[in-house]
Amino acid sequence: xxxxxxxxxxxxIPKKIxxxxxxxxxxxTSDEWITTRTGIKERHLVEKEAASxxxxxxxxxxxxxxxxxxxxxxxxxxxxxxxxxxxxxTACFVQAKIGAKKALCFDISAACAGFVYALATAQQFxxxxxxxxxxxxxxxxxSSITDWKDRNTCVLFGDGAGAAILSEVKSGxxxxxxxxxxxxxxxxxxxxxGGSRMPxxxxxxxxxxxxxxxxxxxxFKLAVTIMTEAAEEVLRRAGLKFSDVDLVxxxxxxxxxxxAVAKKLGLAEEKIYLNIEKFGNMxxxxxxxxxxxxxxxxxxxxxDIILLDAFGAGLVWGAxxxxx
Length: 324
Ligand code: UT7
Description:
alpha/beta; 35% helix; globular; four-stranded mixed beta sheet; five-stranded mixed beta sheet; Peroxisomal Thiolase, Chain A, domain 1; binds oxa(dethia)-CoA
């Protein structure tokens, strides 16, 4: 099996910003509540763009620093729960827009763990020799499924995309991955209508069933437990200790979740990368853009051990250890 690593990262964040103060005018909330309960101060929202438009921005940013052309890609995986359309895959739209003619393309639906799932999938294609160069994107337009009248959820989400290019590397790369799911908990976070269970109708629109429904409190506790266990398990698989980890890049759902996980694991705050303040929860795009920003800010150096740790609707979770 070949060693597979991330050779470049990229991101694309839409320009429009919605602050907590803006939200105060939309629902019964306050900047103080949102900041102290979640760590979020603002989030970016699309104006007209779809998930593939954001994904293309992130892909081109990553390609620029990879030394590869779009024509060199033979695999495109987009992790998203807000695809442009139910079908075809958002990855196919991305392929056409960037001109990656020889790539095979598909989407992955693993909610907030989607980017980690997609990295692990691309790794399999490359390490087995089926593909050489893969583009993996986490791209979300969560504003399109957010109920802007529901204060329990609308303060949490944002739009954006992050990308990674994967290829064979001589040493290091993805050292271990731990993916898991618990389908008993689908009720905790979902969009009830628009699929085959509840196709779109006047009634589903009138009852706001096309928007995110979430049991935040229950999820919060599960997120802390599962992200802690996922981090421990992936380290065990990599044969490493927490003291070996240089930077943890967690899914950015809530700063309090992240700090509770860090406390349980005995990790110092400076080892945790946080950007939720600027972007809110962008589902699959959160881990992807956090990784990209950490690299661009010089917080990830060659040889560093990076721990990605994500959790989301399904339930699903995914953690990876990457030697940069
Ligand atoms: O992306 C991966 C999956 N998602 C997650 O992991 C999210 C996990 N959950 C959370 O992050 C938190 O549960 C939330 C941020 C969603 C909520 O925080 P919480 O501390 O769990 O609050 P809560 O739901 O227990 O609500 C506490 C109070 C309630 O009022 P009462 O019943 O105590 O009077 C809510 O109605 O806060 C109220 N509340 C708000 N107040 C002001 C809920 N949302 C708001 C709001 N502004 N936006």
